[in-house]
Structure formats: structure tokens, C-alpha cells
TrEMBL record, chains A, B:
Keywords: Isoprene biosynthesis, Magnesium, Metal-binding, Transferase
One of the record's GO molecular function terms: metal ion binding
Protein's recorded name: Farnesyl diphosphate synthase
Cofactor annotation: Mg(2+)
Pfam families from the UniProt entry: polyprenyl_synt
Family as reported in the entry's similarity comment: Belongs to the FPP/GGPP synthase family.
Organism, scientific name: Flintibacter faecis
NCBIfam families in the cross-refs: FPPsyn (NF045485)
Keyword S-adenosyl-L-methionine: no
Gene Ontology annotations for the cellular component aspect, listed alphabetically: cytoplasm
């Protein structure tokens, strides 16, 4: 069974990689921005968010292929946020996924533009879906709300404001729910929207994704302490270097491990009313156990 | 007649100002980004693009109010582009519309986030239109294409790459058509889309807006030479200081004046098949004669 989940995951990722690699192929006039966008977009990564989109669509009775433009749009938003977060004026990170960050390679101006380009093109990508137009409108509204000032952008602002202060667990959870949870939830919901899910199903997907997103972040904070640079693809201990509050600081490693366990079970439980929740339930546990 | 055009323009601008001022009123949790977004969004400005959206909608038989969310979305994109273009890593400008630029007031990190927030929220704003969903999808696709890597973002990249080189008239026209023309054309087309314009009408709106956009840019370059700081709201001569190629360098002031005249007539002529093209034809001439 585990085997077949891995197979599904690999197939989804291949679909996503192929589509992402095609996106900017026709534009050759603006080579420097295009190259910078592709540098970060095609840097590997776990593709957690677009996989969520595809598999939430399948779980809600839709065809995976129909959700592919939504999945790519979500990953483009995620990628732009990494490029901008790494900028010298923001987190000033020089290594990401084992490679120099975008601005280190292309310079700050091009990195800003590459982020802007991916963010702008993401919404155009949603409109490529061959789906009823009201579903596309709903996807645009959902993604904009999740990624915008009341979601991810607001979370990054809170994160910057919180540097150097010790945040409480509650403050960390609010920060996480905005900075990473909102987009992860949007990823799952866009899959549901592609499949024509009911409002109730979208709520269940949101509950699943919020628990999974929080588990993911807590695990991330743990890996920043217990992993090696090589496994992680970025320097371990960077949270401490950036004076970031983390769940490990707030709770300790052992409590974090228990919390991750509990949250991934909550995520799986949120899917109880779907007919075929097995893959997404497995994914929640697999992400909670991940090594990188 | 002139009087009544001014009245229409003032009424449109008031509609736009009111709506823009309401946009972020409900979000108080992320005060610093919200304040930074409003600082630039509500800084006055000519509101050329959203006026184009409203009046193109009216000219195509639609109701101005129906196009208001599209108009605001376009202005949000324009505002984000100004914030990011002014950043130290880009044009490094400290004055805009007579006030310190966003990053001078709020710092670089918040200015980047304010731009990202406006860009992201712009697409959400389009979905607020009470219009058939296929028109909203078309608006999202049009705005994304115009503002993205094959449009405005690509133009800004070309602009950065061209600094310090003398560009030919042809290169300048390509640069302008991407950097400012694409969004001006999208502004007009979104008005048409809101009204359910035909494909042929959208083409005419594009021809109108491309000519108007080029006239606007040539006039802009002229004003950078012949205006005073106070009239312009930013330092005159900044193009020279930034080693930007301009139409004035390429053609000389007198030829520029003739070109602006010719282009604004071309813009007006492109509207010949509409029943009530008077306002937009007047607007093209009014912008060509502007002092700031």
C-alpha cells in the first residue's frame, strides 16, 4: 500500500514538473527574468502544495489533469514567496534547496522582478484550466485571499516584525497559519474547487490542510535543529542565526514531536467523510516523518 | 463641452478614490503592510488607467459601476509597480508624487511586501465584479498577461538592462510598449470586457490605448526636461541622473511634441466605429497636453 502511495506521489510530481517546465518556454525576449524565474521554479522541491491540489481534486471526484493549472498556479505563488523572503532586505538567505538563492545568482533587481513575474503569471495560469468559469473565479478569489495581505504577505510582515522577540506558542501558531497555513489550505481547496466540491467538503479540506500545515511547520523547526546541512539543503541553525522564534524554542523538541504526531492524525481525521481519503491521510503522516 | 468632460473625469476619479479607500479598511491585524499599501495607493495620482477602464466600459454600452472592481485592480497593479520600481535595487528613487517613496517611509522589507500585497490583492479585486464569470476570467487572463513577464515585468527588466546604453527609437518603443503600454491597454480592454465588448471592439480599444500610452510616455520624457520639480512632484532631470534613454534624447524636444500630437490623433481615430467616443478621444488629447 505504502508502495502505491509513493507511486501516486511520483506520478503527480512528474505531471507538475513537466507542466512547470513548459510554462515560460515561449518567451525568449526577456531572457534574464525568464531564466531567474525558472531557476527557482524548477529547483526541485517537494511540490507538497501542487500535489495537495491534484489529490484533493481526485478525492472530490475530479480528474487530476483538470486541476493541473491550479496546482501550477499555487506552486508559482509559493516559489515567488521564497524568492522575495530570501532577499537581503528580508531574511537575507544565501542558500535554498542546496543552491545559491535567486538574488545571489541574478542580483537583487532581477530577483524582485522574477518574484513579481511568477506572482503575476500565477493568476494567469489559473485561467488556463478547462473548467467552468465560475470555478476559475472561485480559485482566483481563494488564492488571492490566501496569498495576500490578510494571508501569506501579512504573515511574512508579522514574521519580520517578530524577529528578535520570543513569540508565545499562540503567536507562533497565528504567524504560521498566515505565513504558510493559508497557502497550504488554498492548495487543497483549489483541488476541491476544480472538482466542484461542496462548501462542506471545502471546509473539511481546510481543516485537513490547516492541521497538516501546522504539523509541517513544527517539523520544519525541528529539522532546523536536528538535521544536517546536507540533508536540509540549507544551513541548519538558520532560525537561530536569524533570531526567529520557533516551536522548538517555545515547546522543546520532545513536545514538538508529540504535537506533529497529533496534528497529522487530526489532519487524517478531518477527511473521514470522503470516500477515498487514503492518499491524503498517508501524505499527512509522511510529511510529519520527513527528514528534509 | 470641455467643461462636461472635466466633470465626467472628476466624477470617475471620485468613484475610484472612494472605492480604493475602502479596500483594506477591514484588515487591522497587519497594520504596517496595510498602512504602506494605502500610503501609495491613496497618494493621488492621475488615475489614468482606472478612468480608462470605466469609460471604455461606458463607451461599449456597460455601466460604469460594474467596471469599478476591474478599474481598482488595474490601479493596484500600477501602484505596486511604482513601489517596486522605486526600490534601491531598482531605480532607487526617493520622491514620487511629491512625497517620499514607500521604502523611504516604511523601509525596504515592508515596501516589497506592500507591493506584493497590492499585486496579489488586485486579482482578488477583479473577482468582486458583479459580472458573468466568463468576463471575470477574461479580465484575470488579460491583466496577468499585460502585467507579467511578457508585459510590464519584462519591460522593467529591459529597462534595467538598458540603463547606461543609448537606445534607438525602435528599442525605446518596444520598451515603452511593454513597460507602460501593456497595462494601459489592459486597462482599456478590461472596461470593454466588463461591458461584454466584441473581439473587434477590444482590438480597437487596444489600438487606442497603445497610441495613447506611447503619447503619454513621450510626454513624460518631455516633462522630465521642461517641467519644474514642483509641477512634476519628483525631481526633473531624474531620467538623465539614472542614465535612462528617453525619447527626448532619441528625437529631440520638437520632434517629440509633433509625435505626441500625431499619436493622440491616432488614438482618437482608433475609436471611429464607436457610437460615443468623445470622452476617450478628448482624454487622449488632454493627456498629450498635460503639464505634470
Amino acid at each position: 500500500m505504502e508502495q502505491s502511495f509513493e507511486t501516486i506521489l511520483a506520478r503527480d510530481r512528474a505531471l507538475i514538473e513537466d507542466r512547470l517546465a513548459e510554462l515560460f518556454r515561449q518567451d525568449t525576449r526577456y531572457a534574464c527574468v525568464q531564466e531567474a524565474m525558472e531557476y527557482s521554479l524548477l529547483a526541485g522541491g517537494k511540490r507538497v502544495r501542487p500535489v495537495l491540489t491534484l489529490e484533493a481534486c481526485r478525492m472530490c471526484g475530479g480528474r487530476v489533469e483538470d486541476a493541473l493549472p491550479f496546482a501550477c498556479g499555487v506552486e508559482m505563488i509559493h516559489t515567488y514567496s521564497l524568492i522575495h523572503d530570501d532577499l537581503p532586505a528580508m531574511d537575507d538567505d544565501e542558500l535554498r534547496r542546496g543552491r545559491p538563492t535567486n538574488h545571489v545568482v541574478y542580483g537583487e533587481a532581477t530577483a524582485i522582478l522574477a518574484g513579481d513575474g511568477l506572482l503575476t503569471a500565477a493568476f494567469g495560469q489559473l485561467t488556463k484550466a478547462e473548467l467552468p468559469p465560475e470555478r476559475i473565479v472561485s480559485a482566483v478569489a481563494t488564492l488571492s485571499a490566501a496569498a495576500g495581505p490578510s494571508g501569506m504577505v501579512g504573515g511574512q510582515a508579522l514574521d519580520m516584525a517578530g524577529e528578535g522577540h520570543a513569540l508565545s506558542r499562540g503567536e507562533l501558531e497565528l504567524l504560521q497559519s498566515l505565513k504558510t497555513g493559508a497557502l497550504i489550505s488554498a492548495a487543497a481547496q483549489l483541488g476541491g474547487i476544480a472538482a466542484g466540491a461542496t462548501r462542506e467538503q471545502l471546509k473539511q479540506l481546510d481543516r485537513y490542510a490547516q492541521a497538516l500545515g501546522l504539523a509541517f511547520q513544527v517539523r520544519d523547526d525541528m529539522l532546523d535543529v536536528i538535521s544536517s546541512d546536507q540533508e536540509l539543503g540549507k544551513p541548519v541553525g538558520s532560525d537561530r542565526a536569524n533570531e526567529k522564534s520557533t516551536f522548538v524554542n517555545a515547546l522543546g523538541l520532545e513536545n514538538c514531536a508529540q504535537l506533529v504526531e497529533k496534528l497529522s492524525q487530526q489532519a487524517a481525521d478531518a477527511l473521514a467523510e470522503f470516500e477515498q481519503p487514503e492518499f491524503l491521510a498517508w501524505l499527512a503522516h509522511a510529511l510529519a516523518d520527513r527528514k528534509q
